[in-house]
Fold each of these.
Amino acid sequence: MTASTAVLKAESRLFAREPYSLFWMVAFPAILLTILGLIPSFREESADLGGRRVVDLYVPISVLLAMIMAGIQALPPVLSGYRERGILRRMSTAPVRPGSLLGAQLLLHGAGGLASSILVIALGRIAFGVELPDHLPGYLAALLLATLGAMATGAAIAAVSSTTKATTVVGSIVFFPTMFTAGVYVPVQVLPDALQRIMEFTPFGAASQALDQAARGAWPDWTHLGVMTLWTALLIAAAVRWFRWE
């Protein structure tokens, strides 16, 4: 326990010294929400959205963007870099096992995504009058599953990529479709019904719908939670199956 705590402290210091990763993980989702919220038409109620505003939709979307940046963009290169530089291999012969380092990175990036989510929710409420989630337990359940799914996706990307450069390529291939399914380009709620149903079977499409439902006061649909859970389990299994220490 002491060794794992020491690894976590050391990795926390290194984590705090990465301003670019912290910017994209913590600041960028809030900046995007600010830019969108400053568009006058996005602050007007729309009959097509059931009386809601576009900025209301983009708070849960920005929450998911924080998870995507933390789990898919920031985490995989770190894991691959440690493996490529032989750090994981050397740790396998030391009292502190590589799993402690991997666990610390997953914890730190997950915490970074959650911190960014809190910032986005607070910004939406204070700056643009977006209501806080009406069904808090449902929102927290969906947020937790989204966080686990993002971290599992990042671990799977690192597992199937042999080098840091390969990780960047694979991460980019996964990143852009994930942004679309999460609703960053176009909110899922305004897409055609057929496309919405397809998106609901993707991990972040289901997460977007679950967070939106909880924000409006309903417990997220069990289908959405089930899709998120299934994807998370599959991605964890893939990461465990294909991850190599060297």
Note: The chain is about 75% helix and 0% strand.
Amino acid sequence: MKANRSGERVRWWTYALLVLAAFACLFPLYWMFVVATTDTATATKLPPEIVPGGNFFHLASLVFTTVPFVRSVINSLVVAGTIGVGQAVLCSLAGFAFAKLRFRGRDALFLVVVLTMTVPTQLAIVPQYMIISWFDWVDTLQALIIPGLANAFGIFWMRQHLSSALSDEILQAARIDGATTWQIFWRIAFPLVRPAAFVLGLLGFVTAWNDFLWPFVVLKSPEMYTAQIAIKALQNSFDIDLGLAMSGSFLATLPLLVLFVFVGRRMVAGIMDGAFKG
């Protein structure tokens, strides 16, 4: 047994549970790749095949020829990247206002923002579609970007971080030095909670990348498809080629895997930083 940083012994079953948890998380991804290398008959065979086949590159080429997959991935990168950055900045700005600014109705307005998290997303589709139609944004990427630039969870998340990270004394000192509210936010408050904002932006990126329902309602033309809608277009109305569908799903997952390889440790550090501050 090895000792952790606090000097306590880590028992063997702790590692066993971690290995089982890692296996449970990684096996669906591995199974998706296995199906992406075979055909439907092999994928539905009992007992199932657990060894990858040799059809991945053939099926991947079919994905690129059946739907405009590269364009769809680019569209998803534009939408998810813009939403991620927008949530990191706008939710931080709103969280700063609710945490440190004094204005009439602040607490009541924040309560309304929090209560919106109890409303199912599906209920907002009809009025949201009516607004998008009024702006003539149907079948455009801004119909996906604008509604996702801020959300209630992000505002709540950043308010909690700013409440604990930024003291009132620092704000008073900055105002005495002549700093404006925007300067206080951008030069003092936002750098303090940058790890939390980074985590929020990454969560917003992943959520926007995996979103299916709203893009399926709004987007009509193939050149405007996102990656998830392109995967849906691979499926026939009467028959589903599991190998082809899983090839598209695996290719659409690769950008997220690459993203987490580079920023996974920073994301965990940002989450842990918020946990210790709380």
Note: The mean pLDDT is 87.
